[in-house]
Amino acid sequence: MPRGPRLDAPGTLHHVMLRGIEKRDIVTDDKDRDDFVSRMGKLVPETGTIIYAWALLNNHAHILLRSGKAGMSTFMRRLLSGYASNYNRRHDRQGHLFQNRYKSIVCQEDRYFMRLVAYIHLNPLRAGLVASLDDLDAYPWSGHAVVVNVFSNDWQDRDFVLHHFGEKERMAINTYRNFLKEEAQKGRQPELTGGGLVRSIGGWSAVQGMRARKEKQLSDERILGDGSFVSKVLEDAEESVKSQVNVLDFNEIKDKAQADIEDLCEKKGIGLGQLLSGSRIRSVSMVRKTLVKKFVKEYGFSYAETARMLKISTSAAAQIVRNFGDV
């Protein structure tokens, strides 16, 4: 499959996600973890990249960064190629370590910065690598411990993060901790791992409101932000990038999802009634899982909205995403 162009102007805020091939581990031991983090830190001054938040887990990683003059693509290429080569030598293996190409989402800073920092730093807790927020303070493989001043490094912009939570350090750290507690109650928040229309404007309820006002808005799966932000990002983009942008009438969104249901049922040779009746036949279940993942991760539907469309429970939709969803 051809690789689409990236939105990579210097100074752009990116949420970068990478995963091991076939969801396999990208680290085996602490030497691997230290190698990954050390390479990331070394590349920060070399490429002019600024890192605000990061989390290294067993089979994937998240980084919130601002691209430097060298560009985010250069930073990521050097990080991943160098790390993968060393990993393969250490563990006497060959072949690709990472799944395809990493995923990067351009983010609207004033609207999403604090939530993205929290989302990324909560990953070890959601993955069960630590048992509590207190334990997260001592987890050395994410930027959270640096923000709360348990560990230190000279390449993570801790001050910029804390400035969003208060003027004085101690007060800012306390506010940051409380914010994480609140965000931890919200679950996985799939809207923070991708762009697109529904995610960017706050879910289907917001879509319905704008739909009633007969409004239109630019959207792009590579950009997490409202229509005006999408327009601003694309002002200086190449024509090949601009051509991929959608201008959607909100009437089209739910219709598109309904068409996806009908098209996939026809393609897989199953009846619409079978799908919507809760059938557990394997072929029907696979179609249901595919649609749930698409509606939640690509369209930004909530679990409840997805469940209503597919006639399943909200908990069933959430379980499908937890068990079968990607980063």
Automatic annotation (TrEMBL):
Gene3D superfamilies in the record: Transposase IS200-like
Gene Ontology MF terms in the entry: DNA binding; transposase activity
InterPro entries: Transposase_17 (IPR002686), Transposase_17_sf (IPR036515)
Cited PANTHER family: TRANSPOSASE IS200-LIKE DOMAIN-CONTAINING PROTEIN, TRANSPOSASE, Y1_TNP DOMAIN-CONTAINING
Organism: Prosthecochloris marina
Transposase IS200-like domain span: 9-123
Highest taxon of the lineage: Bacteria
Official protein name in the record: Transposase IS200-like domain-containing protein
Gene Ontology biological process terms from the UniProt entry: DNA transposition
SUPFAM superfamilies on file: Transposase IS200-like (SSF143422)
